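Lay summary. Proteins are chains of building blocks that fold into shapes, and those shapes determine what they do. In this project we predict the shape from the chain. Here is one chain we studied, written as its sequence of building blocks.
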Amino acid sequence: MHDAGPGPRTLTVVRQEASLGAGRDLEFGLELLARAKSGEIGPTLRLYRPAPTVAFGQRDTRLPGFEAAAQACRDNGFEPLVRRAGGRAAAYHQGTLVVDHIEPDPDAIAGSKTRFGHFGELFAQALRRAGVQAAVGEIPGEYCPGEFSVHGTDPARPAHRVKLVGTAQRVVAGGWLFSSVIVVENSAPIRKVLTDSYAALGLEWDPATAGAVDDLVPNLKVEAVVDAVLQTYAGHATLETASFSSLGA
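And here is the predicted shape, written in a compact code that computers can read:
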């Protein structure tokens, strides 16, 4: 995906069937970016369900409550990590789907700003395909706020909107990694760990904005969202599948 969005080209889809561990999952995405930059791999889509993790932003680490927030994560069964991208703390677990899109790109920096909007709409479209009333845009009080977050509306309570997809990007000379986390199932542990960690950090937010797809569309599972994401991508690129072992993790 460049400035104009995904083009008519081949994208290799790799399903990682099990988490490598919270820290290793993040590191492996950066390794794939380095390999794309060097030309070792081409455009790649990596999908996996992560171990329980809270990924803090760099700014969070400079707050006096950071160590207490990290301990709150451990107390809730989530591993605290610090990601290289910006933003505030975001939580995910095996009820979520992580989509890492990695591309070699000689002009990666030029498209970095518009990429957020392109991917926000792509994932909103995928969720709509799965039956969710999804749209792009920050909602008041959301955790890890972002202009291009994807939120869903509760059909029974139209005034109630919840954040469903958060995105982060890593850009280097010669390539980029765009990572998106879709919260699909079991939002309660995520809401709890974010409540505790944000309180320790002294950050205000509205816990009601933390939700999952299955809060809005009951019984919708991660695999259904995987199918919707891949069907949506198939409208922008030719998809080829490869085994996870082919990446040499």
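What the prediction tells us: The CA atoms of residues 169 and 178 lie 4 Å apart.
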